[in-house]
Structure formats: C-alpha cells, structure tokens
Amino acid sequence: MHRLLSTLLLLNASSALAAAVHSWTDEHGIRHFSDRPSALHSTQAQPLPSAPSPGPSQQRRDNTAQRAAAEQRRFNDVLRRDAFREEQARQQRCRTLEEQLAMLRDRPRLRLADAAGSPRPLDEAEREVLIRDTRERLRISCPR
C-alpha cells in the first residue's frame, strides 16, 4: 500500500513537472505566467525545459566527497589497527605483571642484582614493597 501511494505521488509529481507554462498579456500590458491557461485571455503554452544533467562541477563535488569518505575510512582503519596493537601490548604488560607478582609471592628467597650487577638476597621488607607496587600497577593497568 505504501509503495503504491509513493509511486502514484511520484507519477503525479513528474506529470506536473512536465507541464507547460501558460503566459498572456492583460489589457494593461502586464505579462502573466501560470500553470493553467487564463479563462479571460488567450494564452501561449511554453513547455518547461528539463533539468540539466549534473555537469563537471557536480562531478567534482561528488569526486571530492568520495575522496573524503575514502580518506575517513583509511583513517578509521589506522585508528582500529593502532587500538588493537595497544590492547595487545596492554594485555602483554598485564601478563608480565601477573607473573612478577606470582614470583614475588611464591618465592621468598629471591635475589636481586645490585648496582654493580652482583646478586644479593632480597629482604622481606623489600619483597613486600615490590609486591605492593606490583599489585598497584596491576590495579591501574589491568582493571578486571
């Protein structure tokens, strides 16, 4: 039903657009234009010219819009790719932090390299500080 009504409206509109323009001059010398002939004066029917086809300027606008849309798609693709890579890196950092936390919790006798590069045992206070810091970095970087 909706399609039928739309089709009838379009056909009616197209026939109105294809109609002629009627013109006449009245007794005072004023020229009149109408879509209907005058009942009082003789009229001349002039067909309406058809709308011009889109010329080069319209094509340039269309090409510009197409180029802009293509550029936007490329930009969006780069953003998605970068977001995907950042998410992968974040997940890797989270796995590393979780492994470090497990190692700090499960191994009380850890050794840490000093400034000279020599290994030294990690005391309990240092271990607790590292555990607390690692948990905090996990909380900030890797929300669950």
Automatic annotation (TrEMBL):
<keyword id="KW-0732">Signal</keyword>
<feature type="region of interest" description="Disordered">
    <location>
        <begin position="37"/>
        <end position="79"/>
    </location>
</feature>
<dbReference type="InterPro" id="IPR025392">
    <property type="entry name" value="DUF4124"/>
</dbReference>
<dbReference type="Pfam" id="PF13511">
    <property type="entry name" value="DUF4124"/>
</dbReference>
<protein>
    <recommendedName>
        <fullName>DUF4124 domain-containing protein</fullName>
    </recommendedName>
</protein>
<feature type="compositionally biased region" description="Basic and acidic residues">
    <location>
        <begin position="59"/>
        <end position="79"/>
    </location>
</feature>
<feature type="domain" description="DUF4124">
    <location>
        <begin position="8"/>
        <end position="56"/>
    </location>
</feature>
<feature type="signal peptide">
    <location>
        <begin position="1"/>
        <end position="18"/>
    </location>
</feature>
